[in-house]
Amino acid sequence: MTQRIPRLGVLGSGKGSNFRALAEAYRSGTLGCEPVIVLSDVESAGILNLAESFGVHAHFVAPGPFRTKMTPQSEAGLVQLLQEAQVDFIALAGFMRVIKEPLLQAFPGRILNIHPSLLPAFRGLEAWRQALESGVPETGCTVHLVDAGVDTGKILGQSRVPLLPGDTAESLHARIQVAEHELYPKMVREFAEHLRLSAE
Ligand code: GAR
Q1: What is the distance between the alpha carbons of residues 8 and 136, in angstroms, rounded to a whole number?
Q2: Does the N-terminal or the C-terminal CB of the chain have fewer CB atoms within 10 Å?
Q3: Whose CA is nearest to atom 8 of ligand 1?
Q4: Overall CATH class of domain 7-199
Q5: DSSP state of 199
C-alpha cells in the first residue's frame, strides 16, 4: 500500500448502527480510512440500505445452508467482492457468522470485530444478556482482531459500561451500543494509521 488512504470493507448482519458510526466518522474526516463496500449475509439487513444512503456500495451475499457459518464458496464470494473493491482491511459490524479460512487467509491480521462485552468474558451470542444474567457489576465492549476462534483474537481496545438497577437486556445493550459507537471509529482509525505507517 502506498500513502493513499486505506480502504475499508464492512460486514454486518443487522441494523448497522456501528456502520453508521464509522460512516459518520468518515464524513467528519476522523476515520483515517474510507469505507468502500458493505456486505451482508442477510438480504433484509438494515446495514445494506444504510450503506447506500451513505453512498457506499452494498451487496447481499447468500450464506448457504448453515446457521453459524458461510459455505466456503459463499465466503470465497465475499473475498472476491472485497478484493475487487481493493479493500485493505475489514471491520465486522454485527456480522453474526463465524469467519473461516477463505476470509482469514485473504486478510491475515486485517479483520477487526466489535463485541458487546469485556472479552474474554461472555463470548458468543447476546453477550449483554449473558452479563445481565451473571450479575456482574459492569460489562462493556471490545474491539479485537479476528482469528479462527470465536471472539478470541488479540484485544485492541475496550470500553466499560456499568450495569444499572432495573436494567433489562434491551436497556443494557442500548447503553453498550453508545459505547461501541465511540470506541469502534477510534480503533478503526488507529488500525488504519498502523497500516499506513507499516506501508512506509
Ligand atoms: C453490536 O452490539 C455488536 O457488538 C454485536 O452486534 C450488534 C450489532 O449492532 N456483535 C456481536 O454480538 C458479534 N458477536 P449494529 O448492527 O447496530 O451495529
Answers
A1: 35
A2: C
A3: 94
A4: alpha beta
A5: T
Cell 453459524 belongs to: 68
Are 153 and 144 in contact, with CB atoms under 8 Å apart?
Answer: yes
Active site residue 173: no
Q: Is 27 helix (H, G, I), strand (E, B) or coil?
A: helix
What are the residue ranges spanned by the domains of the chain? 7-199
Give the strand pairing for 7-11 and 155-162.
unpaired
Question: In 3-state terms, what secondary structure has residue 10?
Answer: strand
Q: Is 14 near ligand 1, meaning CB less than 6 Å away?
A: yes
Q: What is the pLDDT of residues 44-91, one digit of tens each?
A: 999 999 999 999 999 999 999 999 999 999 999 999 999 999 999 999
Q: Give strand pairing partners of 74.
A: none
Checking DSSP bridges between strand 57-60 and strand 34-40, what pairing results, if any?
parallel
Q: How many residues does the chain have?
A: 200
